[in-house]
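Fig. S4 source data, part A: sequence.
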Amino acid sequence: MGLSIWHLLVVALVILVLFGRGRISDMMGDFGKGIKSFKEGMKEEETKPAPPPRIEAPAPEAKPAETAETKSADNQPTAN
């Protein structure tokens, strides 16, 4: 029990009567414009160049951390 050509013609005729020829062509035109816009958007994504890498200023040189050994060596009096 499939759809025959006559069933499809009757359904198409009912749709044509309900919506009218002008409204159906407007809907199909809008549908086609939407697909075209989508394809153009996808093409833009593929051809869009990557942004240039950010160049950051070099970090200032940090002083080496003081360890317990260097602190104790600095605090001892010198023998003269």
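Fig. S4 source data, part B ends here. DSSP finds three helices and no strands in the chain.
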